[in-house]
Amino acid sequence: MTTIRQEDFIQSIADAFQFISIYHPLDFVRAMKAAYDAEESPAAKDAMAQILVNSRLCAEGHRPICQDTGMAVVFLKVGMDVKWDGALSIHDMVNEGVRRAYTNPDNPLRASVLADPAGARRNTRDNTPAVIYMDLVPGDTVDVKLAAKGGGSENKAQFTVLNPSDSIVDWVLSVLPEMGAGWCPPGILGLGIGGTPEKALLMAKEALLDPIDIQDLKARGPQNKVEELRLELLEKVNALGIGAQGLGGLTTVLDVKIKDYPTHAASLPVGLIPNCAATRHVHFTLDGSGPVVFTPPGLSEWPEIGMQGPATARRVNLETLTRAETATWKAGEQLLLSGRLLTGRDAAHKKLADLVRNGQPLPVDFRNRFIYYVGPVDPIPGEAVGPAGPTTATRMDKFTDLMLGDQVGLIGMVGKSERGPEAIASIKAHGGVYCIAVGGAAYLVAKAIKAARVLAFQELGMEAVYEFQVENMPVTVAVDSGGNSVHDTGPREWRMKIGKIPLAPH
């Protein structure tokens, strides 16, 4: 009988979450490099270059790949012959490990978990509790799979119950374009097929923790229906032309992972969950010999990538920027921003809207300024701010008309992913502009931030309004002042070039 010490289990959980915050799985790095090499879309290629450069910088600097350091998800298979040496429950041990990982002073991770989700939404400050799934199995070891799943990809989860004769492929191809780019492609799709509704979604989540092996499958050929389905979905999803960051290109997914389970004769439940460009997971086993040691990969495992975009980008001084200047920008154009940049996301926007509605003064003058949708990681010594990549902009769509209007007076916004029709109409009506930074390149973006201070709503933590001093921060014009959106034109252009799936009516 194996004895697992409480401290060994806790520390292994803590070390694992720290490890995956810093290091991409090497199978992901290799798959992304292969996609980068094959990519023909300049915008998508530059986005993948930023993701790969960011990944290497994080491995060198021991800092998080993404500012959204995720919600802790843990799958446990506990051997029935295991004996525990400790007083805490298994759930409490996992949560103590998560707490240690996310409050580590050498590499603090962003606490994103809110208690009372339908009410006060209070941040728990240490990213607990984790979401834990546990099975008792034969054996005398503890098998652990864990992941840190960011909100952008989790929010795009899809579920349906198809008729048994319906096409799973057709359903995936119908929902994927509607998911937008907020899940930060290129990434991985996890599908769960069968069981019951909750079982299908759980299988989709666990499927994402399997290694990327689609190229091996291509080489040997499929041996069953699930493998045939994986290959068909990979080809047809990539033929949609969505591309990296939704900019249009050849690669939208690096792999499609599927788990299935017997289901009712009248049912075909299907769950779909994407993994983003900040893919973070690890698998390890405790056998009673002590805590698990995670060995960092050598830096030679990362490719040396040169980014061509900034060399031809337009340089923008945020201190002197006017609407007349932003009116000359075109969707798809690359910019380098320098000067003072305000920040704010969901909670801050709601507070600002409440102040305006109640006729109260705003704590910050937003007129003719740019706002960046971001919730940064806390800095360590030597940093102005921790990793600070963009959050999904569509969550701020309902505030866009207010923020660009006369009462607030913004001139432009920076985030990630597309904007909805209402927000685009508002941008056009007010002569505003929306730019994107690359999701999944948070540490690289943070290198452009030279100073940071909180201006308002300090109680919101990472959601407070900051002022960043930025220098040559790379962004792309996603919606110009004429209402032209690169997230519309880019995928349509590349879907037409690939030519395998007919275009929907426009």
Brief synopsis:
The protein has helices spanning 6-22, 26-38, 42-61, 90-102, 151-154, 168-175, 197-207, 214-220, 225-238, 323-326, 346-357, 400-404, 421-430, 442-446, 486-498, and strands at residues 2-5, 71-79, 82-85, 114-115, 122-123, 131-137, 142-149, 158-162, 187-194, 253-261, 268-275, 281-286, 314-317, 334-343, 370-372, 412-415, 433-436, 449-456, 465-479. It has 506 residues and is of the alpha/beta class. The protein is globular.
How would you characterize this protein structure?
The structure is a single chain. By secondary structure, this protein is of the alpha/beta class. Among the domains are: 151-277, 60s Ribosomal Protein L30, Chain: A; 310-491, Alpha-Beta Barrel (fumarase). Helix content is 31%, strand content 24%. The strands form 5 sheets. The protein has a 5-stranded mixed barrel with strand order 14-15-16-17-19.
- Backbone shape: globular
- Tally of alpha and pi helices: 15
The level-1 CATH class of the domain at 310-491: Alpha Beta
| Average residue pLDDT | 96
Number of strands: 19
Low-confidence stretches: none
Structural class: alpha/beta
**Amino-to-carboxy terminus distance:** 65 Å
Task: Tell me what the CATH architecture of the domain at 310-491 is.
Answer: Alpha-Beta Barrel
List keywords for this structure.
fumarase; 4-stranded mixed sheet; 506 residues; 5-stranded mixed beta barrel; alpha/beta; 60s Ribosomal Protein L30, Chain: A; single chain
Write the layout of secondary structure elements.
Blueprint: E1 2-5, H1 6-22, H2 26-38, H3 42-61, E2 71-79, E3 82-85, H4 90-102, E4 114-115, E5 122-123, E6 131-137, E7 142-149, H5 151-154, E8 158-162, H6 168-175, E9 187-194, H7 197-207, H8 214-220, H9 225-238, E10 253-261, E11 268-275, E12 281-286, E13 314-317, H10 323-326, E14 334-343, H11 346-357, E15 370-372, H12 400-404, E16 412-415, H13 421-430, E17 433-436, H14 442-446, E18 449-456, E19 465-479, H15 486-498
Parallel strand pairs: 1-3, 2-6, 9-10, 13-14, 14-15, 15-16, 16-17
Antiparallel strand pairs: 2-7, 4-5, 7-12, 8-11, 9-11, 14-19, 17-19, 18-19
Helix pairs in contact: 1-4, 2-3
